Amino acid sequence: MTIRVVIYGVGPIGQLIARVALERGFDVVGAVDIDPQKVGKDLGEVIGLDKAIGIKVESDADKVLREADPDVVLHSTGSFLDKVYPQIMKAIRVGADVISTCETLAWPWYRYPDLAELIDNYARNYGSTVLGAGVNPGFVFDALPAALSVTLTKLDKISVVRSLDASKRRYSFQKKIGLGMTINQFREALAKGEITAHVGFAESVLLMANMMGIRLDRVEEGQDAIIADRHYETQYFKIEEGQVRGVVGHGSGFVGNREVIRVELRACVACEDYEEIRLEGDPSMLWRSTGTPGDPATAAVIVNLAPRILNVRPGLVTLKDLVNYAFTGQT
Question: According to a count of CB atoms within 10 Å of the terminal CB, is the N or C end of the chain lower?
Answer without folding.
Answer: N
